């Protein structure tokens, strides 16, 4: 019986290590996650946050021209722990942010559109795995927006 329990424990640990490795090592199709927030369809799961017309929050109006806002937002995003650029550049970029412990990937697509008074910012943050993210994507977006505002 003791040997069976030891074997089961070892198998459970192997499964845990395999799951950990899969989350970190599965390839990411950048084209599939580089989603235009202005046309994104909000999923039914609560593991996302959409800042766009008909999203969770309205698009953000900025007084900065789009290129300046994009440069500032890029610096803010890349200074966030675990965040790197996945796809795009300039006015339409997607970032990947990995959680510290498991390395779960979250994707945040941002798009800036010129307006008469500056630019309009839309964002779409979502988790790749799971059902709930405990508000992590919303918190990240709100943190970026707070840093972006003058």
TrEMBL record:
<dbReference type="Pfam" id="PF07386">
    <property type="entry name" value="DUF1499"/>
</dbReference>
<feature type="signal peptide">
    <location>
        <begin position="1"/>
        <end position="21"/>
    </location>
</feature>
<dbReference type="InterPro" id="IPR010865">
    <property type="entry name" value="DUF1499"/>
</dbReference>
<keyword id="KW-0732">Signal</keyword>
<protein>
    <recommendedName>
        <fullName>DUF1499 domain-containing protein</fullName>
    </recommendedName>
</protein>
């Amino acid at each position: 019986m003791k040997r069976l329990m030891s074997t089961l424990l070892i198998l459970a640990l192997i499964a845990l290590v395999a799951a950990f490795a899969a989350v970190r090592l599965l390839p990411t199709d950048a084209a599939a996650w580089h989603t235009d927030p202005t046309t994104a369809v909000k999923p039914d799961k609560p593991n996302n946050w959409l800042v766009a017309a008909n999203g969770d929050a309205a698009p953000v109006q900025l007084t900065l021209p789009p290129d300046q806002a994009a440069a500032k937002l890029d610096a803010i995003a890349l200074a966030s722990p675990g965040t790197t650029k996945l796809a795009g550049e300039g006015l339409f970029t997607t970032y990947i942010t990995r959680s510290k412990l498991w390395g779960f990937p979250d994707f945040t697509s941002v798009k800036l559109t010129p307006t008469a008074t500056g630019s309009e910012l839309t964002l779409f943050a979502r988790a790749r795995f799971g059902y709930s993210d405990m508000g992590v994507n919303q918190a990240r977006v709100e943190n970026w927006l707070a840093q972006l505002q003058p």
